[in-house]
Amino acid sequence: MKTLPVIVAVTGASGAPYARRLLQCLADQGVLAHVVASSAGRLVYRLETGKDIEEDLPDGTPLYDEDQFSAPIASGSFRTRGMVVVPCTMGTLAAIAHGLANNLIHRAADVCLKERRPLIVVPRETPLSLVHLKNMVAITEAGGLVLPPAPGFYHHPRCVDDLVEFIVGRILEHLGLTQEFMPAWQGL
């Protein structure tokens, strides 16, 4: 592996294809992912991809349950490139926004914020309530990045995979990694 690992948390919101493609891209770049999935995240992953998350992970990828507080990602002494919560439920977003550490996903996110490491949350909900918006502001004020899966269309997507890759490309850019899904906008 060529760089610090990335924590990828999968929660129970719709959007498992984003997580799946991100994990593939990290592996392709030689970046080890430490994956933590909630029980609802595992269920939705199976429903949306047709596979259990374990089936999609490269050999040697650490996979943690949400109650596994002894995992290395629960400590600030375990160095990472950052964390992506994709997809992110509004419950997880609220817990992160308010510094709760009820499970390993929340704790790992809290560690990223306190250690000033990148934290990217990809909330998958619509429409958004005022509570959701305030929680997004709180995460942003704490140093996290809210990256809604709202794809652009200037790259002329031809299929759903193109839309997924647009979002995954943005995630990779914010982790400081390369992406080749879409060229940078050059203007008209």
UniProtKB/TrEMBL annotation:
Catalytic activity, as annotated: dimethylallyl phosphate + FMNH2 = prenylated FMNH2 + phosphate
Residues covered by the Flavoprotein domain: 6-175
Binding residues annotated for FMN, in chain numbering: 12-14, 38, 89-92, 124
Highest taxon of the lineage: Bacteria
KW Phosphoprotein (keyword) present: no
Molecular-function annotations in GO: carboxy-lyase activity; flavin prenyltransferase activity
EC number, UniProt record: 2.5.1.129
UniProtKB keywords: Flavoprotein, FMN, Prenyltransferase, Transferase
Residue positions binding dimethylallyl phosphate: 154, 170
Enzyme class per UniProt: transferase
Keyword Phosphoprotein annotated: no
NCBIfam families per UniProt: PRK06029.1, ubiX_pad
Family: Belongs to the UbiX/PAD1 family.
Function description: Flavin prenyltransferase that catalyzes the synthesis of the prenylated FMN cofactor (prenyl-FMN) for 4-hydroxy-3-polyprenylbenzoic acid decarboxylase UbiD. The prenyltransferase is metal-independent and links a dimethylallyl moiety from dimethylallyl monophosphate (DMAP) to the flavin N5 and C6 atoms of FMN.
Record-linked HAMAP family: ubiX_pad (MF_01984)
Name this protein carries in UniProt: Flavin prenyltransferase UbiX
Gene name as annotated: ubiX
